[in-house]
């Protein structure tokens, strides 16, 4: 099969556990791009901390970010599509987080807002450093000039399991997905990586059979099942592996490079 587009999750897939893009993986993606294949990063991150990886590799094109809520052009940072969410509907979730000691942030396409950024716990500060983001003070709804695209709860695994279970019993006006062991995201009901990938591929006349997608977590399932070739990392949960066509090596063993060399570069 000849692939025209490769969609890649970032954390736990493209990057190793040290949040590094290895030289081997970078070189492999550049070689695939030189063959005319479009590389699209599809991340729970926002454009501001996804686009730099494309620039590091010297790649143009698009990134699908905030789990599909925002698609942006790399060189201009122009937003080409956005699923905006209704902010007022977040009030019960904000109240829950504040009352139960759950850290949360609210995202526009390029902005990230928290309660009292100067007083964040060390674990939360480290998380934002790893994801190359600097949180700002959450303003009043009326003072937010950009549409909201994602609400994220962050905390220890057991706490997030409890939050997911309890919110799952609510009548959710949003799409809820687990983007990592320690993250739960709420977005517009139609905002998924699969939906955004489908829109982008169709705009370029690319068929699903010409798309390869590689990911490692529950928020990647929609793009793995959309793509003609969906590949799960070895570090994926079993449900993600079951949704994929095959399983590659882990992110620490450069599974992305291995799959592209096998299926695209013919090595």
Provide an overview of this structure.
- Strands 5-4-3-2-1-12-13-14 form an 8-stranded mixed β-sheet.
- It is built from 10 helices and 14 strands.
- The protein has helices at residues 10-14, 23-34, 51-57, 91-100, 122-130, 157-167, 193-203, 221-226, 238-243, 255-263, and strands spanning 5-8, 38-42, 62-65, 70-73, 79-82, 103-108, 112-114, 136-137, 148-154, 175-180, 183-187, 211-215, 229-232, 246-247.
- By secondary structure, it is an alpha/beta fold.
- Helix 2 runs parallel beside helix 10 (255-263).
- It folds into 2 domains: 5-82 and 191-263, HAD superfamily/HAD-like (Rossmann fold, 3-Layer(aba) Sandwich), CATH 3.40.50.1000; 87-187, Hypothetical Protein, Haloacid Dehalogenase-like Hydrolase, Chain: A, domain 2, CATH 3.30.1240.10.
Keywords:
267 residues; alpha/beta; Hypothetical Protein, Haloacid Dehalogenase-like Hydrolase, Chain: A, domain 2; 8-stranded mixed beta sheet; 6-stranded mixed beta sheet; 10 helices
Specify the CATH class of the largest domain.
Alpha Beta
Instruction: Identify the overall geometry.
Output: globular
Q: Roughly what fraction of the amino acids lie in strands?
A: 15-25%
Total domain count: 2
CATH topology of the largest domain: Rossmann fold
Q: Extract low-pLDDT stretches.
A: none
Based on secondary structure, the structural category is alpha/beta
The total beta strand count reads 14
From the coordinates shown, what is the CATH architecture of the largest domain? Answer: 3-Layer(aba) Sandwich
Q: How big is the Rg?
A: 18 Å
The largest sheet is: 8 strands, mixed
Helix content: 25-40%
CATH superfamily of the largest domain: HAD superfamily/HAD-like
Count of DSSP-assigned helices: 10
SSE sequence, one letter per element: EHHEHEEEHEEHEEHEEHEHEHEH
Give the integer mean of the pLDDT values. Answer: 94
**Terminal CA distance:** 14 Å
Strand line-up in the sheet with most strands: 5-4-3-2-1-12-13-14
Protein name: Cof subfamily protein (Haloacid dehalogenase superfamily)
Pfam families: Hydrolase_3 (PF08282)
GO cellular component, one term: cytosol
GO molecular function, one term: phosphatase activity
């Amino acid at each position: 099969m000849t692939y025209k587009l490769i969609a890649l999750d970032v954390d736990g897939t493209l990057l190793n556990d040290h949040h590094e893009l290895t030289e081997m993986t970078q070189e492999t993606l550049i070689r695939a791009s030189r063959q005319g294949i479009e590389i699209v990063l599809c991340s729970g991150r926002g454009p501001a901390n996804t686009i730099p990886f494309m620039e590091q590799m010297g790649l143009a094109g698009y990134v699908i970010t905030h789990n599909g809520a925002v698609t942006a052009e790399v060189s201009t940072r122009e937003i080409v599509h956005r699923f905006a969410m209704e902010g007022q509907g977040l009030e019960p979730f904000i109240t829950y987080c504040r009352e139960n000691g759950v850290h949360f942030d609210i995202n526009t396409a390029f902005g990230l807002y928290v309660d009292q950024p100067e007083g964040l716990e060390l674990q939360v500060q480290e998380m934002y450093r790893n994801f190359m983001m600097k949180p700002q003070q959450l303003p009043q709804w009326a003072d937010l000039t950009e549409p909201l695209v994602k609400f994220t709860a962050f905390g220890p695994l057991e706490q997030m399991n409890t939050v997911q279970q309890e919110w799952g019993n609510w009548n959710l006006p949003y799409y809820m997905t687990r983007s990592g062991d320690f993250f739960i995201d709420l977005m517009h009901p139609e905002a998924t990586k699969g939906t955004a990938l489908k829109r982008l591929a169709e705009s370029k006349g690319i068929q699903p059979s010409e798309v390869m997608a590689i990911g490692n977590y529950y928020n990647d399932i929609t793009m793995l099942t959309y793509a003609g070739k969906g590949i799960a990392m070895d570090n994926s949960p079993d449900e993600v592996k079951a949704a994929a066509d095959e399983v590659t090596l882990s992110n620490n063993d450069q599974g992305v490079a291995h799959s592209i060399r096998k299926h695209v570069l013919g090595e």
